[in-house]
Amino acid sequence: MLRESPRRHVILRPIRQEKYSTDLVGFKLTAALALSYACSQEVRDAIASPGTRSQQDIPMSSSTVAPSSGARFYALRLKPGQDVALELRKFVDDNGLKAVSIVTVVGSLTKASLRFANTGVWVEREGHFEIVSLVGTVDAKGDHLHIALSDRHGVTTGAHFGPGSSVYTTAEIVLAELADLDFTREPCALSGYEELIVKPRG
Questions:
Q1: Does the CA dihedral 159-102-66-93 come out positive or negative?
Q2: Nearest Cα to Cα of residue 99 among 65, 144, 37, 41
Q3: How far apart are CA 55 and CA 20, in angstroms?
Q4: Alpha-carbon distance 199 to 69, whole Å?
Q5: Can you list the domains of the chain with their CATH numbers?
Q6: Residue 14's CB: how many other CB atoms inside 10 A?
Q7: For residues 136 and 101, what is the distance between their CA atoms, to the nearest angstrom?
Q8: What is the pLDDT of residues 151-188, one digit of tens each?
């Protein structure tokens, strides 16, 4: 006769909301800082001296501890018809911001300019889309934005995001300015693109 296994009970304890919110923002800011070390100073020094090290020997990240920073938060709402990427650029320029991380965006679009992975080609999508996520870093001269959009059937698309969008009903945006850091972008021989460089603000 088969013996019934004893049942196990799992108790789920609620997470304190204020701690979760703080940890989520901290995680996003830490992830943004980590992006800069894909083409670290050690990598650039190795590239500057060709022939001395093979590509396998070049580290993809630095062991140097990433600089930390306090943050100042900004919130804004875009109206129907406005271009999200262009309005972000205008806000950063108007406020003299130098190291911005996108904390959260919620809203909808009727048009979006997207570049899918490893294509190098920008395409325009039109319809009615919910903004599921919009993440990225913005500096005084450039940006790196990714978006996820969901259509009326729940089909979700993710890609690089650029100028050429149009807000449908709203776009509610929260930004964090890392007050102790400067973001710049420099060519990276490993990726073939201009990549984020993080430096302490002078």
A1: positive
A2: 144
A3: 41
A4: 11
A5: 21-200 (3.30.1330.80)
A6: 6
A7: 6
A8: 999 999 999 999 999 999 999 999 999 999 999 999 99
